[in-house]
């Protein structure tokens, strides 16, 4: 089932940002074929703070990868901001990911030789001509994620929670419409993890950022407007 709480803001209906229609993903062929997702239908509205929950192996990360255009469906459609991603050529798909989606992972994937500020700026490296604009935004994001004064520190000089805050700022630097977070608190203690979720919720409420979070932690769902329950590749 999909539990929906306060998915409509005062003033009217929200726009549909993500639409998944009859999504099926099969890995392998013949006797080795494995159906990771089957017949998934869901919608995420602009400004939603949503979670995908379910046991290990239920298809949560596969669903996130499909929506983020990191993988393509076997059957069905995924539409992000009006673009059906499965019909976009692979050579152009990176533009969709770069312009529409920001990623936050359980493992922070920071570059150890770069500073906090440089790690936040990594997605902007192809846009050298706009360097000053992105530098200004990166400094603004440092303040928003609570890392003031730590812009010159390397990842090894930061705590796990601080490294995840860098990853969140990096996901936001190109101002994407959708933030996909795969177990963003998985490597953190309970208190630090809740701080990360509250930070993301604050970005959602104050900036209208749309979040879709994969999590094992049921406590996170209390912050969410939509909770999507997956089991054996299907929505319950």
Overview of this protein structure:
The protein has helices at 60-67, 90-100, 116-121, 131-144, 160-172, 190-207, and strands at residues 2-4, 16-27, 34-45, 49-53, 75-80, 83-84, 101-104, 178-182, 210-215, 226-231, 234-235. It has 236 residues and is an alpha/beta fold. The protein has one domain (2-7, 46-69, 99-235): P-loop containing nucleotide triphosphate hydrolases (Rossmann fold), CATH 3.40.50.300. The strands form two sheets. Strands 1, 4, 7, 8, 9, 10 and 11 form a seven-stranded mixed β-sheet that branches. Helix 4 (131-144) crosses helix 5 and helix 5 (160-172) runs parallel beside helix 6. The model is unreliable at 1-11 (pLDDT under 50).
Short description, anyone?
This protein has 236 residues and is of the alpha/beta class. Helix content is 30%, strand content 27%. Strand 2 (16-27) and strand 3 form a beta hairpin.
Secondary-structure element string: EEEEHEEHEHHHEHEEE
* CATH architecture annotation name: 3-Layer(aba) Sandwich
Strand count, sense and barrel status of the largest sheet are: 7 strands, mixed
Separate helix tally: 6
Any low-confidence stretches, pLDDT <50, length ≥5? 1-11
The fraction of residues assigned to DSSP E strands is: 25-35%
Write down how many β-strands occur, each being a DSSP E stretch of 2 or more residues: 11
Helix content: 25-40%
CATH class: Alpha Beta
CATH homologous superfamily, by name?
A: P-loop containing nucleotide triphosphate hydrolases
Question: What is the domain tally?
Answer: 1
- Which whole number gives the mean pLDDT? 91
């Amino acid at each position: 089932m999909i539990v929906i709480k306060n998915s409509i803001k005062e003033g009217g209906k929200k726009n549909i940002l993500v639409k998944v229609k009859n999504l099926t993903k099969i890995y392998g062929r013949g006797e080795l074929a494995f159906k990771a997702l089957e017949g998934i239908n869901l919608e995420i509205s602009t400004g939603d703070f949503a979670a995908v929950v379910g046991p290990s192996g239920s298809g949560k990360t596969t669903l996130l990868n499909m929506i983020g255009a990191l993988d393509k469906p076997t059957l069905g459609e995924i539409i992000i901001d009006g673009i059906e991603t499965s019909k976009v050529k692979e050579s152009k798909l990176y533009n969709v990911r770069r312009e529409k989606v920001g990623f936050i992972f359980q493992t922070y994937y920071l570059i150890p030789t770069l500073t906090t500020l440089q790690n936040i700026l990594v997605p902007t490296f192809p846009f050298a001509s706009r360097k000053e604009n992105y530098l200004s935004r990166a400094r603004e994001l440092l303040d928003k994620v609570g890392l003031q004064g730590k812009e010159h520190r390397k990842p090894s000089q930061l705590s796990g929670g601080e490294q995840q805050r860098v990853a969140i700022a990096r996901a936001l630097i190109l101002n994407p419409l959708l933030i996909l977070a795969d177990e963003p608190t998985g490597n953190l203690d309970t208190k630090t993890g809740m701080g990360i979720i509250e930070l993301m919720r604050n970005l959602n409420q104050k900036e209208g950022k749309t979040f879709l979070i994969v999590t094992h932690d049921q406590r996170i769902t209390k912050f969410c407007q939509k909770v999507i329950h997956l089991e054996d590749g299907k929505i319950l």
